[in-house]
Design brief:
By secondary structure, the chain is α+β, with helices and mostly antiparallel strands. It is 34% helix and 18% strand.
Amino acid sequence: YADPPYYNANMGHYDGYSLQDYTDLLEALSQMKGKFLLSSYPSDVLKDYVKRLGWWQKTFDMRKISVNLLAAKNTGTKKRKMEVLTANYEI
């Protein structure tokens, strides 16, 4: 399971993780002999690897999940965030 900092988001204390770092990770994952599952935000670079290598993906609307979980607290609307799980096996 790979859960790197999301280079295309506010990274807080992980600041400094770059697009190049993310691309290096995707390249390493593309060479793996075993299975991997990667969590991230959607991106053009990821889309390219998925298309080229036939990886599988599932996308989750995290705003819907957050609103449903927090509805009882009346927290108002949340910013929409799409997260994606990517794997080199069918998920």
